[in-house]
Amino acid sequence: MSSQGRTGAALGGEGQIAAVPRVTIQAFCESGDTAAVMNSAATDRRMLKAHVKAHMGGMNAALEAYRSSPTPNVVVIESTSDRATILAQLEELSEYCDPGTKVIIVGRSNDIHLYRELISLGVSDYLVAPMNVLTFVTSVSNIYASDAGKNVGRVTAILGAKGGVGSSTIAHNIAYNIATSYEAGTVLVDFDLGFGTAGLNLNQDPVTSLGDIVQTPERADSNILDRLMVKCSDHLSLLAAPAMLDTTYDVPDSTFETMLDTLRATTPNIILDLPHTWTAWVRRTIMAADDVILVAAPDLANLRNARNLLDVLNAARPNDAKPRLIMNMVGVQKRPEIAITDFAKALDLEPMAIVPFDAKLFGAAANNGQMLAELEPNNKVTETLLDVTKALMGRAEPKPVKRNLLGPLASLLGRKAS
How far, in Å, CA of 139 to CA of 267, rounded? Predict the structure, then answer.
């Protein structure tokens, strides 16, 4: 099996690739195609923390450069030479490599014996050219993921194309469904800092919130997050919004970066309920997500905003799947609507789900502090959102959701007792 085949296997399943840490990568290429891959990889969202620079000249240029300069964290060398020449040049390069430097060789020979020999000499990976951006990004990611020895959680960002389209309700119910139907560890993060409703919808009254992270974002390690999260069930935890207006939240774009990195290392599923606003930190957060879901209603403003969001996301995330679309609040009585087929055609994006408007169901769930699957597990809307959950998880049919009839009563009794 070639190295490219091995790296490609890492993209199977859910196609998860861990973000590359803050490292310096220098590539010495022999072909323009490989140099182009390096330059494109430098703009991939998973490489945003890394510093990548591509040079021409291959192994000879690398040897010349490092005779008098320290080596970076990762050295990528393309070589079209034969096996004996590559091994001899690597031996010379080893005299100049600093301890801890990782070396990736890019060659033209699809040779498992060469790959094994290179690995035995301490080379981190061998890739067969021509390769694509994700092959290279996965290779670098795997080097550091294996060093860290940690599983990487999957981040799904959910954003409304317009205010009031129900994106928060969709996000809360998806998080609940993952935790309940699949019994999978899930954290719901309510990023609507001033007006978040996740606590209300999940019938929680949190005393801690994301406001504590805003004050000292660099301290958002696993111990801090454990203290800030509210445990809603065995598998669902909530990082609630402050939902207070005693302060404003004009925060730097990197405010929640450490928090999300920590969550990725500790939680399989992270659902982000993003507010309908466009700030530097919202843009950075949505660009770094593994999956993006746009929630829209069938009207002109939603269509325009969804088109703008898709243009920005597709341009900034060329190596990721397209965002997913959920059409919500469809079929409001007497309201003129854009036909779903026309809406999808204008966006060149088929919706993954069409959620009909059900004022009674959504209103009762919001006022009772219940999820839809708790209130009416057999309702068409509930089943639609379970299908969305199944698609996101990419797994077998979920377990039947148990209806929690005592939830509201137990909560009410608890309040009376206090």
Answer: 23
pLDDT, tens digit, 9 for 90 and up, residues 42-77: 999 999 889 999 999 999 999 999 988 888 999 999
Boundaries of every domain in the chain: 17-148, 154-417
SS3 222: helix
CATH architecture designation of domain 154-417: 3-Layer(aba) Sandwich (3.40)
- Rounding to the nearest 10 degrees, give the CA dihedral for residues 256, 49, 288, 151: -90
Condensed to tens digits (0 to 9), the pLDDT of residues 15-33 reads 578 888 888 999 999 999 9
Phi, psi dihedrals of residue 251, rounded to the nearest 5°: -100, 155
- With tokens 């779903």, the residue in question is 340
Fold match between domain 17-148 and domain 154-417:
yes
What stretch of H or E contains 292?
strand 291-296
Residue 100 backbone dihedrals phi, psi, to 5 degrees:
95, -10
143 pLDDT above the threshold of 80 = yes
Give SS3 for 171.
helix
State the pLDDT confidence band at 415, using cuts at 50, 70 and 90: very low
Prior bond of 130 cis (ω within 30°):
yes
> In what helix (H) or strand (E) does residue 269 lie, and over which residues does it extend?
strand 269-273
Does the domain spanning 17-148 belong to CATH 3.40.50.2300?
Answer: yes
Q: The tokens 């979920």 sit on which residue?
A: 398
pLDDT above 50: residue 11: no
Q: Return d(Cα 21, Cα 138) in angstroms, integer.
A: 13
String of b and e for 358-373 (b: at least 16 CB within 10 Å)?
A: beebbeebeebbbbbb
Check residue 146 and give its pLDDT. Answer: 58
pLDDT score, position 408? 41
User: Which single residue is written with the structure tokens 């209103």?
Assistant: 363
Q: DSSP assignment of 9-49, as one string?
A: HTTSTT---PPP-S-EEEEEESSHHHHHHHHHHTTSGGGTT
**For residue 57, what pLDDT is reported?**
95
**pTM, full prediction:** 0.79
Tell me the CB-side half-sphere exposure of residue 348, using CA atoms within 13 A: 7
